[in-house]
Amino acid sequence: GHHRRRPDARRHDAGAVMRALATIAALLVALPASAGGLAAARTLPAGTIITAADLRAIDSKRPGLDDPSQAIGLQTRITIYEGRPIQATLLQAPKLVGRNQIVRLSFRRGALRIDAQGRTLSDGAAGDVIRVMNLDSRSIINALVEEDGSLTTLN
Questions:
Q1: Least confident piece of the model among 29-38, 72-81, 120-129
Q2: Which of 4, 95, 103, 137 could form a disulfide with 123 if both were Cys (CB 3.0 to 4.6 A apart)?
Q3: How far apart are CA 154 and CA 143, in angstroms?
Q4: What SS3 class is residue 17?
Q5: CA-CA distances (angstroms) from residue 130 to 118, 127, 144, 152?
Q6: Which runs of E-coded beta strand occur in the chain?
Q7: Which residues fall within 8 angstroms of residue 139, CB to CB, at 6 or more apart?
Q8: Is pTM, for the whole model, over 0.90?
């Protein structure tokens, strides 16, 4: 036999479908506007090495970091006050060597190794080339800051 539509069964109304889609689209557009960000969980003095405990998530439209791995292990360039968004420009690789620090210099030529004392003329992070004064000869040399904070002479 012939199937008759029940009187209470609604036909799909194209207008209702479009209104529902418009509502969903409006919600999706609204979500990224309240973008998450990272803020200082406490006041972080300049030179602080950031740990997970120093960060908290905030709702912020202001530019800043949103992934904790982008900040943890880095050092603050300036003081970041509690609740302020953390931006990449406020952070730097941690300085392993400080200015005017007395350091051991190792000169290596094949099997020959000469150690001398030097004074750093600037601070440096791993991978930086800094100037160091050899305290014995008073000559200024360039040295590479290694991952462990030691210095390797370059000239």
A1: 29-38
A2: 95
A3: 5
A4: helix
A5: 12, 10, 6, 10
A6: 36-40, 55-59, 75-76, 91-92, 95-97, 102-109, 112-120, 124-125, 129-134, 140-145, 151-153
A7: 133
A8: no
Structure-token pair, residue 133? 């004064």
Give me the residue label for tokens 């040399």: 141
Nearest to 74 by CA among 84, 88, 53, 63: 88
Q: CA-to-CA distance for 39 and 57, rounded, in angstroms?
A: 6
Exposed/middle/buried for 45, CB within 10 Å: 0-12, 13-18, 19+?
Answer: exposed
The mean per-residue pLDDT over the stretch 14-36 comes to 60
Q: Which residues contact 8 (CB under 8 A, 6 or more apart)?
A: none
Q: What is the pLDDT of residues 97-133, one digit of tens each?
A: 999 999 988 777 888 888 889 999 999 999 999 999 9
CB atoms within 10 A of CB 92: 13
